[in-house]
Amino acid sequence: MPYPPEHGKEEPWIGAVRARSLCVVSGKGGTGKSVTSASLARLFSRHARTLLFDADLGVGNAHILQGSAPKHTLGDVLGGNQSLDSIVHRCEENLDLIAGGSGVARLAALSVPDLAALGDNLANLERDYSYVIADCGAGISETTLGFARASDSLLIVTTPDLTAMTDAYAFLKVLGKRRGDAPPMLLINRAQDEAEAAAAAARIANVSKRFLGFAPEWIGWVPEDRSVFDSVNQRRPLVLHAPDCVAADAFFGIFANVQQRVDSQHPRGLGLRLAAGAAVSLRMA
Ligand SMILES: Nc1ncnc2c1ncn2[C@@H]1O[C@H](COP(=O)(O)OP(=O)(O)OP(=O)(O)O)[C@@H](O)[C@H]1O
Ligand SMILES: [Mg+2]
C-alpha cells in the first residue's frame, strides 16, 4: 500500500474513520473563509455531529465568530500542556470547536513533526464526528497546503477582485490536480450581483482549465451585505444572526450544494492523511 495511499484506492483503516472533511481555503487573505466556515459549520451541525477546526494556526479567530471563549487552544497542545481532545470546546449540541490559538509564533510556523503529531491526534478525535470543517489560513503555507491535500473536499473562497482571483488561481496551481478527487469547489464572495460572480467564476475556470488542465466547480456566490459585518461584530454566525438577510439566504443554498458534494466523497480521514503527508515531507527532507 503506497503511503500516503493513492486517491480512490481502498484503505485498510477506512472502517475506523468516520468524519468527512472539508477545508475552506483562499489565495488572498480576508476573502470570507472564516465567515463561510462559521455558517457552514452551524448548518452541517443541524444534520450530524460536526467539528470546526480552526486551522488558521497562530492567528485563529473561528471561536470569535461562534461567540465562544474556549479555555484552551492548539497553542496549549503544542506547548504540551493539553491533549487535543481536552481542548474540544462545545459551541452547541452538535457542534464542537478546536480553537486555533492567537499570537502563538510556534503555531504560525508549524514544523513538520508538529503537523504530523497534530494529524495523529486529530485522527483519534475525528472518529466521534460526521463532519470536520477546517477553516484554514490564507495562502500557500505548508500547513494550509497540508490540510488542503489531506481533506476529502475543498472549498476555495475568493472575491471578484482581480488580486483575490489571481491568488485563488495561484493556490490552485500550487495545489495541483488531486487525482481521482472531485474538483475543488469555488465560492465567489462579496459580489455585487450574479453577473459579476458568474464572470469571476468563469474567468478562474477558463484560466485554470487552460493552464492547469482542471477547473474548480463554481458552487455559488454571496452578495456584499452589511449584515455579514454586523454578525462578525456580534460574534454570531450569519445564519443565526440574520437568517433572513440576502447573504444568509445565499449561504443556505451554498450549504445544500456543498453538503451534497461532501457527502458524495469517501471519508478518508483528515488527521490520518495530514500525518501521512507530513511523514512523506520528513522522509524527503
Ligand atoms: N459577503 C460579505 N459582505 C460584507 N462583508 C463581508 C462579506 N464577507 C466577508 N465580509 C467581511 O470581511 C471580513 C473578513 O472575513 P473573514 O474573516 O471571513 O475572512 P477570511 O478569509 O477568514 O480572512 P483571513 O484570511 O484573515 O482568515 C469579515 O469580518 C466581514 O466584515
Ligand atoms: Mg479567517
How does this structure look, described?
The protein has a single domain, classed as Rossmann fold (3-Layer(aba) Sandwich). With 285 residues, it is of the alpha/beta class. α7 links the parallel β6 and β7 (185-191). Helices cover 45% and strands 16% of the residues. The chain has an eight-stranded mixed beta sheet with strand order 3-4-2-5-1-6-7-8, sandwiched between helices. The protein has helices spanning 33-45, 62-65, 74-78, 105-108, 112-125, 142-150, 162-175, 194-212, 226-233, 238-241, 246-263, 270-284, and strands at 20-25, 50-55, 89-92, 95-98, 131-136, 153-158, 185-191, 217-223. The structure holds adenosine-5'-triphosphate and magnesium ion (MG).
Summarize, please.
The chain is of the alpha/beta class. The protein has helices at 33-45, 62-65, 74-78, 105-108, 112-125, 142-150, 162-175, 194-212, 226-233, 238-241, 246-263, 270-284, and strands spanning 20-25, 50-55, 89-92, 95-98, 131-136, 153-158, 185-191, 217-223.
